[in-house]
């Protein structure tokens, strides 16, 4: 009997001294690389306002289609995905110079940005209209705010640039981009 009690105490003592390795929770993705904060690049879902000086028939609003093009009169399909508005204006100018206008003055502006998406621990996850200079805080507010389970300091973003997907984290005061997919993580406790 004594021997069993001693063995039991020895095992309890051994258990108290032994520590098992703790499983670390997966950390957040790294911050979004700085190169993703360059000039705005167009993609499917953006609507462009094209103005050709003194050419009302060639001015109007055009959508970037799923293939990344705008269908423009006289010129045809013009690539827009991954380009800036200035680059699209240059392509339209070159197209109009080919037998249509001598010296076209073309400007291109974003009329309506493609939407952003927010999911995870917000009250109303979903798709929302992007507003210029929108921050993570503003996006969360539009989605009804954080839930009680939200980790308010861990907002993950998935962003596409030039056909590549990037993932990272953003601080609450960071600017988001049209097309961004934000995910508010859940707190551990």
TrEMBL record:
Keywords on record: Signal
Domain named Polysaccharide export protein N-terminal: residues: 38-110
InterPro entries: Poly_export (IPR049712), Poly_export_N (IPR003715), Soluble_ligand-bd (IPR019554)
Residue ranges, annotated region (Disordered): 20-39
A Pfam family the protein falls into: Poly_export
Domain Soluble ligand binding residue range list: 116-164
Gene Ontology molecular function, alphabetical: polysaccharide transmembrane transporter activity
Name the record gives this protein: Uncharacterized protein
UniProt organism field: Pleomorphomonas carboxyditropha
